[in-house]
Design brief:
The complex is a heterodimer of chains A (569) and B (183). Chain A is of the alpha/beta class. Chain A has 13 helices and 22 strands. Helix content of chain A is 23%, strand content 22%. In chain A, strands 1, 2, 7, 8, 9, 10 and 22 form a seven-stranded mixed beta sheet that branches. In chain A, strands 6, 12, 13, 15, 16, 17 and 20 form a seven-stranded antiparallel beta sheet that branches. Chain A has a three-stranded mixed beta sheet with strand order 3-19-18, with helices on one face. The longest helix of chain A is centred in the last third of the chain and has 21 residues. The radius of gyration of chain A is 24 Å and the shape is globular. Chain B is mainly alpha-helical. Chain B contains seven helices and one strand. The longest helix of chain B is centred in the N-terminal third of the chain and has 26 residues. The radius of gyration of chain B is 23 Å and the shape is globular. The chains are: A alpha/beta (569), B mainly alpha (183). Chains A and B meet through helix 7, strand 14 and helix 11 of A and helix 3, helix 5, helix 6, helix 7 and strand 1 of B. Chain A: Belongs to the GMC oxidoreductase family. Chain A: Keywords: FAD, Flavoprotein, Oxidoreductase.
């Protein structure tokens, strides 16, 4: 590698961002726009917008197995094979199990996307804001630690990122789920409209709304400047979008950062650790293992942002040991890697509806309706803590009979019948971060890049089980009253991790004794290192978290650059 | 002498390899037209599948399952996407299917009359996949042939048009009165 011959000066930047996913992309955009020479390190390969979406324009018949994953791959990679989006059209964007092994005490499905853009290529694109009911949760209910921020701290940053990302949404005026900067919503279906009205009429504090999503329903100049155009409602997002219709680092923040001339992107860079200088009392850079050559190279910067995705950010911090921090960077409190949590996605409830026989839907829609949390919002009502939000999706069923053979079968296949409406919902439950839910390093085993193997210990608890029961009961009651028929509840029993909403381990808090990061996502103990991905989360609430990571990242960069200009960093 | 013994051993190996190949040579079977990694289906098996596909979804004024190569799709799916035990059950079921045809009509599936083939399929329609043997083969193959047919380029461009770029979503539009399509 040419890197061995480059001088330390060539390997010195103003800022280093570890990770190019949804939060790392934002850090890159913000730093480069503010004039900082920024190095973005990505452990996977490069994926260029448009150029590297090999399946994006394929028709169903062009997939040899019509989307299904061949058995040999399933056998070899059982974890990733359980992910809903791991299909023939997008499997090249997922990490196969053996490519990065880890240890589990209890089943934990760690879903990863190691490439430029990370999982921002693959995300479900739901973008709901947090409210004070979420930020005040731990303090009110006595778990975790108090969030060091409130809604007012992050609200302007939500607005800031929403405008750039492009969020399709409806202003619902609900305090539990604050409104944002919205592009027009797409349509709800006839049954969703009906259920929305039914719930509003029959439940004081329950709402059915349009699920806000990162899709350009009506692009603004800021979006066309990014080279993105209107969402074409293909619902093939996981392949990478040739229109840039949904937000990803690849379509948006990274090319934007590149245009400033201040971005250096280095794929195939596995970050080994952050270099801490005892004398300076600061981090001075990072050690990178080149994923291909396996050589170790050091890069230096004044500011380091850790955006490797929740679990890998913990891994890097835990592996960054020095005489000052023998247990991991900034880990004076000993809480690093602990209080790890996720979202409980186990419960579902489906039904049929025989209303609205004369209408149907047409085209496709990349979002659904959404039921914001209604349990334990303003006061404690149940024997479990916190609550759940729910996705809510409906459509008109169509079917063909496969009975018989010959011309009668062929005739049936040619003439689809219209069936009843289906309604379906899945829970998104808050889980309680616990000290015992922990990420540690197994120093006895090293992976092929010389990193200790990550050990995950996390599982469901009684609170989660009670919440599943309550979701089923409450939703069944609402469905029944609304006249939905043939109600079927389900519990997938899926392992934690499959929600792909892992959070915590390097939580934010007021007190350095009980938290890793302060209210600016800055390590309490190392003021030039910031963590702004899922690792920073003090609690999980129920919202899909990516929007919050983006807002926290933009806010933290603004603070870090301000501190740098004042000479504090 | 040593050299001679080596040569003799080599020759013996070549001969036994030839013997191993012999039965296949005698039957004069050709491999299937697609490369199979896990299951053994030869060209004869492939033609039987093609005929089964055509019996299930026949060519009429419009293409049938055989025309869109749905039988090859079925073969690919069994070979790549079935679990090992299901592959074994399927190949055993394929044999059972052939034998059942012989037993019922005294002829192979291919040499039977269309009426005899219809009678055989009519009987298997009444059985369930769980009954195993020929019934498992029939129902598993039928499912794949229907899948292959209804996701074929022909079907998704001429019968039920798949839109790669719909560019619209309407949440509530009147159901169009169904006009029967001629299959």
């Amino acid at each position: 590698m040419a890197n061995l011959n480059t001088s330390a000066q060539d390997r010195t930047f103003d800022a280093i961002v570890i990770g190019s996913g949804i939060s790392g992309g934002w850090a890159a955009k913000e730093f480069t726009e503010k004039g900082l020479k920024t190095l973005v390190l990505e452990r996977g390969r490069d994926v260029k917008h448009l150029k590297d979406y090999p399946t994006t324009n394929k028709y169903p018949w062009e997939f040899q197995h019509r989307g299904q994953i061949p058995e040999a791959i399933r056998q070899e990679a059982p974890v990733v094979s359980r992910c809903y989006a791991f299909k023939e059209d997008a499997m090249h964007f997922f990490v196969k199990d053996k490519e990065h092994p880890y240890e589990q005490d209890k089943p934990f499905d760690w879903i990863r996307g190691y490439q430029v853009g990370g999982k921002s290529l693959l995300w479900a694109r739901q973008t709901q804001r947090w409210s004070n009911y979420d930020f005040e949760g731990p303090a009110r209910d006595g778990f975790a630690v108090d969030w060091p921020i409130r809604y007012a701290d992050i609200a302007p940053w939500y607005s800031y990122v929403e405008k750039f990302v492009g969020i399709s949404g409806n202003k619902d005026g609900i305090d539990i789920l604050p409104d944002g900067e919205f592009l027009p919503p797409m349509e709800l279906t006839a049954v969703e409209q009906y259920f929305k009205g039914f719930v509003a009429d029959n439940y004081k504090d329950r709402h059915v709304i349009y699920g806000r999503c990162a899709h350009l329903s009506e692009p603004q100049p800021i979006h066309t400047q990014q080279g993105r155009v209107q969402c074409q409602k293909r619902n093939l997002c996981q392949r990478g979008c040739p229109f840039g219709g949904y937000f990803s680092s690849n379509s948006s923040t990274l090319p934007w950062a590149e245009k400033t001339g201040n971005l250096t992107l280095r794929p195939h860079s596995v970050v080994h650790s952050i270099i801490y200088d005892d004398k300076k009392g600061k981090a001075t850079g990072v050690r990178v293992v080149d994923a291909q050559s396996k050589e170790m190279i050091e890069y230096y910067a004044r500011i380091i942002f850790v955006n490797a995705a929740a679990i890998n950010s913990n891994l890097i911090l835990l592996n960054s040991t020095s005489s000052r921090f023998p247990n991991g960077l900034g880990n004076d409190s000993g809480v690093l890697g602990k209080y790890f949590a996720f979202h409980n996605y186990r419960a579902t409830i489906y039904a049929d509806y025989d209303g609205f026989p004369d209408v149907t839907t047409e085209g496709r829609r990349p979002t659904s309706a959404y039921i914001p949390r209604f349990r334990n919002v303003k006061k404690q009502e149940t024997d479990f803590l916190r609550g759940y939000a729910a996705g809510f999706d409906t459509g008109r069923r169509s079917w063909r009979s496969n009975d018989g053979f010959g011309t009668s079968l062929k005739d049936q296949l040619f003439n689809e019948e219209t069936g009843n409406w289906y309604v379906g919902s899945h829970m998104m439950g808050e889980t309680i971060p616990k000290e015992s839910s922990q990420l540690t390093l197994d120093q006895s085993k090293k992976d092929e890049w010389g990193m200790p193997v990550l050990h995950i210990n996390i599982g469901y608890d009684d609170n989660d089980e009670k919440m599943i029961k309550d979701f089923h009961e409450q939703m069944e009651e609402m469905y029944t009253k609304a006249g939905f028929k043939n109600i079927r509840t389900g519990d997938s029993k899926q392992a934690p991790g499959l929600d792909i909403h892992e959070m915590g381990g390097a939580r934010m808090g007021h007190d350095p004794k009980t938290s890793v990061l302060n209210k600016w996502n800055q390590l309490h103990a190392v003021n030039n290192v910031f963590v702004t991905d899922g690792a920073c989360m003090t609690s999980t609430s129920t919202q899909n978290p990516s929007l919050t990571y983006m807002a926290l990242t933009a806010r933290a960069v603004d603070y870090a650059v301000g501190q740098m200009k004042k000479g504090e960093i | 002498m040593l050299v001679n013994r080596r040569t003799a051993l080599k020759q013996a190996l070549v001969v036994s390899a030839g013997l191993a190949l012999l039965p296949a040579c005698l039957r004069k079977t050709a491999p299937a037209s697609i490369t199979l990694k896990n299951i053994a289906v030869d060209s004869e098996g492939e033609s039987m599948l093609a005929l089964l596909a055509d019996t299930l979804i026949p060519t009429t004024s419009t293409p049938g399952a055989k025309d869109v190569k749905a039988h090859l799709f079925a073969l690919t799916m069994v070979d790549d996407c079935f679990k090992k035990e299901d592959q074994q059950q399927w190949t055993a079921g394929m044999k059972a299917f052939s034998e059942l045809s012989e037993k019922k009509t005294g002829k192979s599936f291919e040499k039977s009359t269309p009426e005899a083939r219809a009678a055989l399929l009519g009987e298997l329609e009444k059985a369930k996949a769980e009954d195993g043997g020929a019934a498992y083969f029939y129902h598993a193959t039928k499912r794949l042939i229907i899948q292959g047919y209804t996701t074929s380029e022909y079907f998704l461009t001429k019968v039920q048009v798949y839109e790669l770029v719909p560019a619209r979503f309407h949440g509530s539009i009147p159901v169009k009165p169904a006009s029967r399509r001629t299959a």
